[in-house]
Design a protein that fits this description.
71 residues; mainly beta; two-stranded antiparallel ribbon; 0% helix
């Protein structure tokens, strides 16, 4: 079981933005810092389910990278 969620990187990304949505496409978490991870809580309560995550950042050469998945 994972206690926290955030994408991992081999190098520090720039202009980072992580968004996590519930199954109704409601935003439940956002972060501008790779060090800030989601603890799986919504309004202080752990809620089971599948969540969509989207991350956008600039890599070291300045290219914009977009990734997504489910957690």
């Amino acid at each position: 079981i994972n206690d926290m969620f955030a994408p991992s990187f081999s190098r520090q990304p720039k202009d980072y933005k992580l968004l996590i949505f519930d199954s109704y496409e409601k935003l439940v978490f956002s972060s501008n810092s790779p060090q800030k991870q989601w603890d799986g809580k919504i309004n202080g309560v752990i809620t089971q389910g599948t969540y969509q995550w989207n991350v956008v950042y600039k890599d070291n050469d300045g290219s914009i990278v977009k990734k997504s998945g489910q957690v």
